[in-house]
Amino acid sequence: MKDKELIKLVKKEVEELCSLLEVDCEKSLSLEDGDEGAKYIKVSFDGEDLGYMIGNHGRHLDSIQYILQLMLGKITEQDPNYRVLVDVGGYREERNSHLEEMALQKADDVRILGEAVELPPMKPADRRAIHIALSEYDDIVTESEGEGRDRHVVIKPANK
Prior knowledge:
single chain, alpha+beta, GMP Synthetase, Chain A, domain 3, Ribosomal Protein S8, Chain: A, domain 1
């Protein structure tokens, strides 16, 4: 399936989902190349009073993304190279920026104290953002620890 056809089909599914949810907003879709041959279909919703689409700590946003990923899987016959990323009003971008800033501050704490710092439990996407934000530094390492909802990132000095 060609990328333009795929975008057209996903756009149709997004319109259908918005109709079912009775959401009236601007929608934009783009296709971007990712790591290791993956392709990301970015779906952005913009408008006023869309907080309910984000939900508490992004839970509704995650659910919308999951639903669209299931729809995409049906369209692409479960091709693992295609992923959907959904953002509402720039929430994810702002959230990732906040997480990166927090990660850098905690990394500084690790450098000063010389000991590990545990972050609060986070969703997988948030933990991944922390790992990516700190991956370029040689003097610290990050690890995910815990199970289920208690899974969290630990930032440690690299020499310990």
